[in-house]
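Hi team,

Below is the intake form for IRG-type G domain-containing protein from Cnephaeus nilssonii. Please confirm the fields before the structure is written into the shared record.

FORM ID: S-0412
PROTEIN: IRG-type G domain-containing protein
ORGANISM: Cnephaeus nilssonii
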Amino acid sequence: MTCLASPGKSLARQGLDAVVQFHVSAGSLSIPSEDSKPRGRSGGARALWFLSRRALRSQAARSSSPKDVELGVRQPMENQIFQSKISELAQDTGALKETFEAGNLPAVAAKLQATLHSLENVRLDIGITGGTGSGKSTFVNAIRGLGDEDLNSAGTGVVEMTVEPTPYSHPKYLNITIWDLPGIDTPTFQADEYLQRVLVDRYDFFIIITSDSFTANHAQLAHGLLQRGKGFYFIRSKVDVDMAASRRRRPRTFSEERVLSQIREDCWQRLEAEGLKDPKVFLLSMFEVGKYDFCLLEESMVEGVESHKRHALVVALPNISKAILAKKEASLRQHIWLVATVACGINSSPVPGVQDVACDLYRLIHALEGYYHSFGLDEDSLVKLAEQTGQPLHRFLEAIQGPKTTVTKELVVDLLGQASRDASTFTQELLNVPVLGALATCGISFATVYQMLRLSLDVAAEDAHMLIQTFLNTTEQSLSENFNQ
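The structure came back. Fields below:
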C-alpha cells in the first residue's frame, strides 16, 4: 500500500490556478508570449514566466475557444478570480480585525511580528517509547528525515541504547525536539514511576512502538497517559520484515493485504483485551517510510496536536505523501499575508530596481528559505534524496522548475520585479475592503510582496510534487529490477 495518492484536485493544479490571479487586470486575460520569456541566468524570472504561462493557458482553455487560445487573444473575463484573492485575504485577517484598526501599516506590523515569531518558533516535544529493539531510535531518526548513520542521528542497536530521556533536535527546526525515551519492557515496569521518571508533562504527545505483539506494559503506559490527558499513537514497526518472511514461506499464495490485515487485527485484539477502546495503531517500516501507514500517522499527529503548534509540526514532517504536501502548502499559504505585512512594515527599505516598492528583503529571504526547507528543495535535502535513491543529483534538479540556487538578495529582488507588474490593481482592490485598508497605505509594496510570496509558494509546491513523483518512479523501477533478478 502506498501513501502517494492524492484525493480530488491535485495540489499542483491548485497552485497553477492560483497563479492566474496575478495576471487578471481590468477583467481581461493575457498569456505571456515566447518573446516575453526572461533571458539569461535569472532562475526566479524564468520560473515565474513558466508557471504563469502554463496556468494562463489552462485558464484560457476553460473560457475561450481553442483557436483564440492558439492566437493568444486577450479574452474578457469575470473579476471573480481576482476578487477571490481579496476575499481570501480578508478572511485570513478577519480574526485580527482589531489589530488592523490601528490604521497604519507600522502599527499593524509591530503587533503581527510577535504573532509570526510565535508561530514559527513555538516549542514542540514528542516522546518516543517502546520495547528494546522495537525501532524507537530509528523512528527518532526517520521522523527527522535522517538515516541511522547520518550526523546527529540517534544511536540504534539490538540492545537498549537509551538509559535516560535523550533529546534530538530537528536538523532544520530547532524548536522541535524528538525525545528517545528508555524502554518499557522490564518485568517490574510500572507506568506511574516511568512517567514520573521521564517527566511526562514535558511532552506534547507520545509514540508507543513495538516490533512484535503489544503487551500489558504498552497498555499500562497508555492508561497512564490517558489519566494525564496526554495524546499517544501506537506503532507496529518492522512490517517489512513480516512481509519478507511471509513471502518466503508462502511464495505462491502471498498477499500483502492479508498479512497487513492479520497484523492489524492482532494489535487491536491485544490492546482491547487490556481495556483500551478503539486504539490508534499504525503499521510502519522505518526503512520504507513511504509505504504502509506512515502518511496516515503524519496526518493523525497534525490533527491531534494543539492548534497553535500545528504549523510548526506540519512544516517539519518528512515529505512522503501528497497529502502532507497539501497540508504544508495550506499552512504556509495562510501565513503569506502575515509575512508580507511584517516585511513591509518593519525595517523596510527601497528595493533596488523595483519602482515604489520598499520592504525588508532579509525577511523575504527567510520566508523563501522556509519554503525550500519544508518542501525539501534545499541543497542538503536534494543531495540526501539522491543518496537514498542511488540516483544522480541532476535527475532531481531536472524535475525542478523553480530556482536551483540558494536564496539570495538578488533572487528576491528579481522575483519582486516580476511580481510588481500587476500590483497596482491589487492595491486598489485592497482599498475596497475596510479591514485591509491599512495594507494599501504602503502603496504597491504589500501587493508586490504578497504576490511574490504566493507565486514562490506555488512554484515550490509544484516542485515538491515533481520530486515525489520522480522518487516514486525511481522506487518502482528499482523494485521491478530487483523482482526480475
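SUMMARY LINE: The chain has two domains: 78-95+322-475, 121-316.

Thanks, M.
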